[in-house]
Design brief:
By secondary structure, the chain is mainly α. Helices cover 47% and strands 2% of the residues.
Length: 259
């Protein structure tokens, strides 16, 4: 089939194709001169209606190694369903371009398996809208890699939920940039596990001193007594004179003499 011919595949016809037929729309023989295999660009010919009509089994037959998934454009990716994307593994998700990932609907994003979520393109994740970030379940958020977490912007972390932030370990918190930490709401600050907020990664507290010293009065007031008790002396020493008035008696009562 040519690109033009592939473009005329209707939703009804696409739904009737077998997994093997879908799989050969892109063939590894396309790089061999004179070979009769279909090229990866044939995927570009599928309409959004045709993409949406593929059964989960047919969608799972698309390959990341053959370049089929990498050829999905934004106008096609927006049609990918939750049922379809559940069949992709980490390598498959990684094959999707930033353009395609950013076009995925929130409901589709939330259907990516926890095992595959770290395949999301880092650059695409950094460009997620607040709605897309909110679509990630706590289980998915927990499985993001440090590289992915490190790419999050302050505009995104400002919209994280308490349920999402609660899943982060000390190394995860450490992966966030200072700007990303400073954008956390008081509610999400309160949700950080005490074992994560002060635990050291490579000898440095997960919530680094630079970020800690710049927390707002509202953020400082949000710390739970348990979080205060877990703080390192290095973190406490960074509490400024402008921040101290925000601390409550319940917070201060949890500090030890050593702290």
């Amino acid at each position: 089939l040519t690109d033009t011919q592939a473009g005329y595949i209707t939703a009804a016809q696409a739904a009737a194709l077998t997994s093997k037929q879908i799989a050969v729309l892109s063939s590894t023989t396309d790089n061999n001169s004179g070979a009769g295999g279909y090229t990866n660009t044939h995927i570009d010919g599928l309409t959004s209606d045709a993409v949406a009509a593929l059964t989960p089994a047919q969608f799972a037959a698309l390959t990341s190694t053959g370049g089929q998934l990498a050829n999905f454009g934004a106008d096609q990716a927006v049609a990918i369903t939750s049922a379809q994307i559940k069949g992709l593994d980490q390598t498959d998700v990684d094959a999707l371009t930033s353009e395609a990932v950013l076009a995925l609907k929130p409901a589709t994003l939330s259907a990516i398996t926890t095992a595959a979520i770290d395949g999301l393109d880092v650059n695409a994740l950094a460009a997620f809208s607040p709605v897309q970030m909110a679509a990630l379940s706590p289980a998915q958020f927990k499985n993001l890699s440090n590289a992915q977490l490190g790419a999050l912007t302050s505009d995104q972390t400002a919209f994280l939920s308490s349920a999402q932030i609660k899943t982060l370990t000390d190394s995860d918190i450490d992966a966030l940039t200072s700007d990303a930490v400073l954008a956390l709401t008081p509610a999400t600050i309160k949700a950080i596990l005490p074992t994560s907020i002060a635990a050291t990664t490579n000898g440095t507290p997960a919530l680094d001193s630079l970020a800690f010293a710049s927390l707002s009065l509202e953020q400082m007031a949000a710390f739970t007594p348990a979080q205060m008790a877990a703080l390192t002396t290095g973190q406490i020493s960074k509490i400024g004179s402008d921040q101290a008035p925000a601390l409550t008696s319940a917070q201060l009562s949890k500090l030890t003499a050593g702290q």
